[in-house]
Design a protein that fits this description.
By secondary structure, the chain is mainly alpha-helical. The protein is built from 16 helices and two strands.
């Protein structure tokens, strides 16, 4: 374990319920409103509220999560009657979850693992993209292109934003919580894994160094067994986070050393399926990875095809997971041929991939060719 604390937060119980957050959901609501072509005043008239209420929702000053349940449902039904895609309404709900998470952390002046949101459920890609938005400034893919171009007066924020001291507080909290997590418990390991991953949205060299130290500590932990453990899941997420910082070695090391058993291969695929939404049921512990799960694989296949290029910092895990998916689900081969072959050929022609990725992609290439001859 690291020997230094990265934080000035004190330990012990002491969270208080702060004013509810609304910045992420407010901005999602704003994009939805703009996609309809309505002004704030026009939407306010449709909703039978005054214009300042809509302004408050969009700015986050009046958090949507403070709206009574009945009124919120009426609001959603009204939005469904406008040209708003239903999928965007589900993003609004997730954005409120992300705001709740931010409000929880921003209200914390003490670090306490008891009842922490990151220990209560396995977060998904959709949720994480929304949560990362204020830090990375990258609009979630599902929201890109939602708003119609409009003339604006004066400087307009391009997304939800946190002040510098708020962002520092969030990342300091996550680092402390990760180190305090009880690694003898499944929920403690879930907390550590997810705190590692979300802390990676900091992007600073200090956080990169901290993540590397934590990753080495978890790698030492799983050397004791070649089978799946909750610590395996921590190492998997940590390797992905370090790849985001440009460190491909951790991911390559994880693939070589921690995907040797059938159980771990199944865990990797099950996690991908959950992350991308092929497993729709929310999960409360990482142990779902090694339990029997029913999912098709089409969504995962589509994702891997889109990410199959040599410059992708995650190319090693993309190549391995594509190989593992088509090996375990050969029924996907016929539908994969025409779409996989072009990016697969381009990637194999690139000198920038590892030897292991090349071997696995060559096996995929031959399997696809054989499927065409049947």
């Amino acid at each position: 374990m690291p020997q230094r604390r990265p934080s000035t937060l004190t330990t012990g119980r002491g969270f208080t319920e702060r004013g509810r957050e609304g910045r992420i959901s407010g901005y999602v609501f704003k994009l939805m409103r703009e996609s309809t072509g309505l002004t704030q005043e026009q939407l306010a008239e449709r909703l039978n509220v005054d214009g300042t209420t809509v302004q408050g929702w969009e700015s986050g000053r009046r958090p949507l999560m403070a709206v009574p349940v009945g009124s919120y449902l009426a609001l959603k039904h009204t939005l469904l009657g406008l040209p708003v895609a239903p999928r965007l309404l589900s993003q609004l709900d997730l954005a409120m979850e992300a705001d709740r998470f931010l409000g929880y952390i921003l209200s914390a002046d003490r670090a306490d693992t008891t009842g922490h949101p990151l220990a209560s459920w396995v977060i998904t890609r959709s949720f994480t993209d929304l949560l990362a938005w204020p830090f990375t400034k990258q609009i979630p893919v599902v929201l890109s292109g939602v708003a119609s171009p409009r003339a604006r007066r004066g400087p307009v924020p391009s997304g939800p934003a946190l002040a510098a001291d708020e962002a520092r507080h969030v990342f300091t909290h996550l680092k402390v919580i990760a180190e305090l997590a009880d690694v003898t418990q499944v929920d403690g390991m879930l907390l550590r894994r997810q705190a590692h991953y979300v802390a990676g949205f900091d992007g600073s060299s200090e956080t990169a160094d901290w993540l590397a130290v934590m990753q080495h500590a978890e790698e030492r932990r799983i050397r004791q067994t070649a089978e799946w453990t909750p610590a395996w899941a921590v190492v998997r997420s940590g390797a992905h986070t370090l790849a985001r910082f440009g460190d491909r070695d951790a991911l390559a090391h994880f693939i070589r050393g921690s995907l040797g058993s059938d159980e771990c291969e199944v865990a990797n695929l099950n996690y991908w399926a959950y992350w991308l939404g092929e497993l729709a049921e929310p999960q409360i512990a990482d142990t779902f990875m090694i339990e029997p799960q029913a999912w098709h694989g089409t969504r995962l296949l589509d994702h891997l095809i889109a990410k199959l290029y040599a410059a992708n910092p995650y190319i090693d895990v993309v190549a391995h997971t594509l190989w593992s998916l088509l090996t375990s689900r050969p029924a996907l081969l016929p539908q994969a041929v025409s779409r996989v072959m072009p990016p697969l050929t381009r990637t194999l022609d690139d000198d920038g991939i590892s030897d292991q990725s090349r071997r696995e992609l060559q096996e995929v290439f031959y399997a696809l060719r054989m499927s065409q001859r049947r």
